[in-house]
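Deliverable D2.4 — example input (structure tokens):
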């Protein structure tokens, strides 16, 4: 039988280090978190060779007293908690007292530190966990940690490192997340001597977002700010529906200043965009949730990137409610972009040659502030007032089912409680219907603005909203000769399984045997010629969206019906019809089609004057 031995301390440290220090990015994260916990106003991060040969983090925080400098490198040595009760309400980023010990176990570390009140500072070097030297030193107030030759004594770990460029990129990403999580700290990042990022540390998230994500992304964001019962506050930025992205990579969630991955918050964000964004696109966000420290457990993950909420349901509702409110309150319209002189650059979808030179960006009129770091003419539109929260937090449920069920349930609850939004009111200003071009775009003049309205997109949204209303009762028209619809077996089944739903929206269908379906009635506002197509479309949409969400078949039906019943591009319409559509758009009720495309874009007198060189 093999003998059981307690490992020597330095081997135990190496093992423990593996949990905290995976790669240069994790070292940087721990060191910057320490600097933030130390109350630093400015933090500079420098790396060389992706952080493998050098990481240097300099801060102007509280420093470490001479007598504590060595202790800081011991395992479980921390100044941030003292007893188990402190663990229940953690207010700092660190608390385990492991990071410095872990880092020093696998690298050559030098610390130079001085508390502002001390005349002299301390210089300490630790290699592979062993103190090499310590002396008094004159140095600026604050701390500088230098980490060289990471993993020099753990060749197995070293082998797993990627190329310097890749390690450097994940360090950068970690620094960006830290900068977004603490806008009150000015963070500078230098890679191989080159400055790649600098946040001003103004305390305004907007400034940090702009410095970190850059102008292009920032322009497509709108502000979120809502407080909820139970001391929850959701603030930050989310993308306008037309600026959603192809991946979730632009979603950043923070809880009490800590970057986290949270399925609950992701689901809540995306749910708020349902029926407003394109399928396969994901909203971008920088969303901060503040909760009471005891409402969240941050001690559930080795890298502290996951948290456990006391009440997932409340978190879902808060995030969902805050984002939804911001989306509903946003009454800006995308502006037409004229290329050439005086034109503003488009944001993300660059204009291809020969294409109508129209792309989307937030219009200049919504720009109230200048940002300090760059000279820009446009910024993120601001929602001016935080409207009182509609979503009311409830007491946490006592028994918690499995997470997936819980999420589905929470979503459902949030949806049901959702009260019909008050339409955002646009300033009353007389307008004139000029006409229609290309049998597709309605032209309206309002003040010094020209509006181009996509009649199909707008009408589609009008239908969609009408059908979604609680009191919607469609007229069913019986078919004189019932139609027989032959569909692929699974499509037929999808329809029959949703017979009640279809009936609620004006269809009467029956099984006809042999995989066919008999259609006896259809909604009155649907062209008879479109009935078959619509049912086939609904079946396809149901199959495509799956049944993961309880509302998926209903949404599929609404989308298909709205599209089919709407007036089409290229179609001739009576002026009264066009006027009704224009009215709905101008009232502000209709802003995006159910797929997230804009229904109207604006062209201003100023833009035209610049283009014609009149100014
Ligand atoms: P933790 O952050 O979990 O407390 P660490 O190992 O990261 O553990 O740090 C140990 C202690 O060293 C901290 O609790 C703090 O007192 C001190 N310390 C580390 N970095 C700094 C810093 N940059 N400025 C001031 N004190 C620091
Ligand atoms: Mg720490």
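Example output (designed residues):
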């Amino acid at each position: 039988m093999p003998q059981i031995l307690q490992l020597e301390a330095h081997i135990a440290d190496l093992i423990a280090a593996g949990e905290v220090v995976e790669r240069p990015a994790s070292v940087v994260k721990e060191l910057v978190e320490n600097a933030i916990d130390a109350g630093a106003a400015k933090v500079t991060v420098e790396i060389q060779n992706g952080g493998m040969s050098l990481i240097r983090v300099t801060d102007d925080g509280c420093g470490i007293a001479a007598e504590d400098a060595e202790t800081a490198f011991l395992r479980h040595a921390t100044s941030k908690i003292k007893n188990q009760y402190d663990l229940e309400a953690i207010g700092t980023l660190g608390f385990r007292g492991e990071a410095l010990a872990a880092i020093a176990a696998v690298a050559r570390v030098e610390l130079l530190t001085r508390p502002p009140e001390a005349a002299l500072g301390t210089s300490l070097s630790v290699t592979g966990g062993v103190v090499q030297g310590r002396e008094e030193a004159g140095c600026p107030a604050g701390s500088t940690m230098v980490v060289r030759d990471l993993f020099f004594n753990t060749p197995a770990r070293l082998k797993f490192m990627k190329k310097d460029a890749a390690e450097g990129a994940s360090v950068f990403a970690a620094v960006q997340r830290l900068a977004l999580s603490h806008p009150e700290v000015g963070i500078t990042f230098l890679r191989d001597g080159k400055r790649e990022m600098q946040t001003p540390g103004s305390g305004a998230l907007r400034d940090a977002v702009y410095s970190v994500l850059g102008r292009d992304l920032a322009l497509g964001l709108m502000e979120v700010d809502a407080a909820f019962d139970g001391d929850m506050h959701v603030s930050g930025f989310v993308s306008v529906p037309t600026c959603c992205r192809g991946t979730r990579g632009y979603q950043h969630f923070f809880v009490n200043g800590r970057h986290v991955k949270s399925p609950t918050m992701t689901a809540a964000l995306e749910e708020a965009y349902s029926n407003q964004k394109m399928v396969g696109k994901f909203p971008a966000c920088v969303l901060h949730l503040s909760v009471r420290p005891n409402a969240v457990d941050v001690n559930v993950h080795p890298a502290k990137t996951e948290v456990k909420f006391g009440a997932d349901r409340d978190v879902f509702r808060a995030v969902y409610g805050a984002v939804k409110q911001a989306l509903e309150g946003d009454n800006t319209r995308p502006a037409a972009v004229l290329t050439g002189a005086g034109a503003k650059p488009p944001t993300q979808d660059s204009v291809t040659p020969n294409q109508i030179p129209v792309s989307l960006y937030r219009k200049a009129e919504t720009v109230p502030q200048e940002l300090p770091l760059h000279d820009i003419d446009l910024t993120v539109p601001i929602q001016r007032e935080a409207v009182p929260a509609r979503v009311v937090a409830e007491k946490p449920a006592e028994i918690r089912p499995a997470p997936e069920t819980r999420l589905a349930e929470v979503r459902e609850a949030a949806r049901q409680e959702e009260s019909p939004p008050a339409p955002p009111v646009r300033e009353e200003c007389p307008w004139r219907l000029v006409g229609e071009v290309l049998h597709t775009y309605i032209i309206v003049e309002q003040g010094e603005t020209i509006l181009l309205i996509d009649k199909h997109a707008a009408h589609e949204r009008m239908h969609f909203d009408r059908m979604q209303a609680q009191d919607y009762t469609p007229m069913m028209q019986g078919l004189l000769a019932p139609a027989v619809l032959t569909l692929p077996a699974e499509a037929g089944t999808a329809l029959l399984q949703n017979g009640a739903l279809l009936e609620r929206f004006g269809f009467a269908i029956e099984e006809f045997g042999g995989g066919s379906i008999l259609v006896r009635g259809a909604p009155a506002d649907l062209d008879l010629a479109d009935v078959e197509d619509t049912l086939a479309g609904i079946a396809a949409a149901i199959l495509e969206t799956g049944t993961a969400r309880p509302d998926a078949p209903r949404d599929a039906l609404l989308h298909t019906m709205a599209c089919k019943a709407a007036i089409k591009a290229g179609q001739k319409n009576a002026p009264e019809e066009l006027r009704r559509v224009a009215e709905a758009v101008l009232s502000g009720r209709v802003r995006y089609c159910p797929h997230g495309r804009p229904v109207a874009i604006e062209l201003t007198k100023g833009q035209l004057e610049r283009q014609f060189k009149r100014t």
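Residues 341-405 have pLDDT under 50 and may be disordered.
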